[in-house]
Amino acid sequence: MTDEQTFATKLSALIDAARANGEAPHSYREMSSAIEAAGGPAMSSAYIQQLATGKRINPKIHYVEALAKLFGVPVTYFFDGVQAEPEPARGEAKLMAMRAQELSPEGRRQVMDLLDLVERYERAERHKTEEP
């Protein structure tokens, strides 16, 4: 299963659960309106449907955040448990990458510098604990 199918499957599951429980919104149009009413980004009903069916992939993070808020799930819901990578932090790593896409080139460089710094620190800490 690919990441895109997983996102579509998870979004479809949320939509189906909301419909089955009689919770609003039921239609893609209602979802679009609810996201906009909550101050989220403008998302057409067609775009939401395309995400749910897997016809559109890799939504920007602000769309993922809006969908997560609409359905009352954490953003990582869409990325946790993705197959093909065993680490539990896979969802967090994907979320970090998506958020980085929204940054300017300078912002991405700063994030990379910070990651390098944290990595060096953790490596030094591991080295300290390995010494006799």
From TrEMBL:
CDD domains: HTH_XRE (cd00093)
Molecular function in Gene Ontology: DNA binding
Coiled-coil ranges per UniProt: none
Domain of life from the UniProt record: Bacteria
Domain HTH cro/C1-type, chain residue ranges per copy: 43-78
Family annotation (InterPro entries): Cro/C1-type_HTH (IPR001387), Lambda_DNA-bd_dom_sf (IPR010982)
Protein name per the record: HTH cro/C1-type domain-containing protein
